[in-house]
Specification:
The complex is a heterodimer of chains A (about 270) and B (about 220). Chain A has about 270 residues and is an all-alpha fold. Helix content of chain A is about 85%, strand content about 0%. Chain A is built from twelve helices and no strands. Chain B is globular, with a radius of gyration of 17 Å. The model of chain B has no long low-confidence stretch (mean pLDDT about 80).
């Protein structure tokens, strides 16, 4: 039965994309969670509706438009954080509402029914194309190179931002790069998870890893392993049970996390 | 004694309000300086100016041979700003300092920590440390690259009496070794516990005034 899945090209595409975005989000999610910025993923995902809507309106690739909006949003967020007294979560709330509203206005001007929109909102295995698998691969390579080059500085900055500034780390630049990469990761994952659920892919594996790792390098490995393992099972389950992929992955990720948290709390009682 | 840091007529304004007024301060090698003051008195601003994190509105912060001062400073930020749930071990923390600093580390983390009687903590996660142990580790981290100046921002917050005494003893020892210590605290109580050789300064209404603690 499992072998049959690999005969289906759309499932191959979904599994490849799932593996790639799981590793990407597994790595980036650690920094998102430890910097206490989980809301950024939710904000970017919702803001991306503007890009998706513009893409659908113009009949061009909605993902590329969504990536453009996500990059603009992450640059604005980082700029506001570094140059104003407006709190980070407030600026996310303001900007994502603005972009989401733009998206609704654009969608309302599209007369015909757009089935693509549903797959963006809730995730769909069928909608993933080979080009999106390639986007996922390119992003993963970019993230691995960035983390490999600047690992010590990013970890230092995440742990002690003021200390990092004292040590001469270019905190402003790293914040921009990190937030842009997170935003692109969110958009690349949107086809699989859906706009409303994509945050889970960044937050749940990293939260699991943070609870169970003995040191920092373990956190990244554990987050990736958890993301890859549970997401793949979620994709397979969504195929066999004919359920939306994003929702299935999130429910599974949450239940597995809850199970391990329960075991941990019983153990340490 | 060689002068390490000099503040000349340093002023700092925030949103049009004067936070610091014409501060003049000379810090020499081996000084032990206490800076005290109430909440919002500008203590942290003064530290940020010395560290080069912010620029004065007017005046100058001069350093020895125009070197980038942060390279020669061990900075211990307020421990409340540290996320104790951060999944990192003491060893990783020390190694991270060595990798990020422009200065080199001559000792392994274990041997370095042994100087502070903290080598047994090396494999512990920071969340597993007591308040006193964490402060000791943070000071150890700040000193692993052998800076000659140590700046501590409210280092005794959340420490019990015994842990505070241990910390004072460690800081006095570091000062005797020749390190310059700048100790920022909001509590006058701290000043009663230190040596007569220390210099006591208080920030009052944006002005830095010398106080005699042993009157």
């Amino acid at each position: 039965m499992i072998n049959d899945i690999f005969q289906l090209e759309f499932m191959l595409r979904a599994i490849y994309a799932g593996l790639l975005v799981s590793i990407t989000c597994g790595v980036l999610g650690v920094f998102v969670v430890l910097r206490k910025q989980s809301f950024i993923a939710d904000g970017v995902a919702h803001a991306s509706l503007a890009g998706i809507a513009i893409g659908l309106l113009l009949g061009s690739n909605p993902i590329l438009w969504a990536v453009g909006v996500a990059i603009i949003m992450s640059i604005l967020l980082t700029y506001i954080k570094q140059n104003s007294t407006i709190s980070f979560d407030s600026s996310i709330g303001i900007l994502y509402s603005f972009f989401f509203a733009i998206g609704i206005l654009v969608i309302s001007s599209i007369n015909s029914y757009k089935p693509d929109l549903i797959s963006f909102l809730f995730g769909s295995l069928l909608s993933i194309t080979w080009i999106e698998v390639i986007y996922s691969l390119v992003l993963l390579v970019a993230v691995v190179i960035f983390i490999a080059i600047s690992y010590s500085k990013i970890v230092y900055m995440t742990f002690d931002i003021e200390g990092a500034r004292v040590r001469g780390v270019n905190v402003k630049l790293f914040e921009y790069v990190l937030n842009i990469l997170v935003s692109i990761a969110v958009i690349v994952s949107v086809k699989l998870m859906g706009v409303v659920l994509v945050t889970a892919l960044l937050v749940i594996p990293a939260t699991f890893a943070k609870l169970f790792a003995r040191n920092f390098s373990q956190v990244i490995w554990l987050s990736c392993i958890y993301a890859v393992f549970v997401t793949t099972i979620g994709i397979l389950a969504s195929f066999f049970l004919d359920l939306p992929s994003g929702a299935t992955v999130v429910v599974l990720q949450t239940l597995v996390l809850a199970f391990f948290v329960l075991i941990r709390s019983i153990r340490y009682k | 004694m060689k002068e390490q840091i000099k503040l000349e007529n340093v002023e700092f304004k925030y949103l049009g309000n004067n936070v610091l007024n014409k501060i003049n301060l000379s810090i020499n090698e081996g000084d032990y300086i206490f800076i005290t003051g109430g909440n919002g008195s500008g203590k942290s601003t003064l530290i940020k100016l010395i560290l080069g994190l912010i620029k004065p509105s007017s005046g100058q912060v001069k350093t020895k041979k125009d070197q980038f001062i942060a390279d020669n400073i061990g900075y211990v930020s307020q421990s409340q700003s540290i996320d104790k749930d951060f999944p990192i071990t003491v060893e990783e923390l020390i190694l991270l300092e060595c990798k990020v600093s422009k200065r080199t580390c001559s000792l392994s983390p274990e041997i370095h920590l042994a100087r502070f009687n903290a080598e047994h903590l090396i494999n512990k996660k920071i969340g597993e440390l007591s308040g006193g142990e964490l402060q000791k580790v943070l000071i150890g981290r700040a000193l692993v690259t052998e800076p000659t100046i140590l700046i501590l921002d409210e280092p005794t917050n959340n420490l019990d009496k015994q842990a505070r005494e241990n910390l004072y003893s460690l800081l006095r020892h570091l000062n005797k070794e020749g390190r310059t210590i700048i100790h920022v605290t909001h509590s006058h109580f701290e000043l009663d516990n230190q040596s007569k050789n220390a210099i006591y300064l208080e920030l009052l209404d944006g002005n830095l005034v010398k106080i005699n603690n042993h009157d």
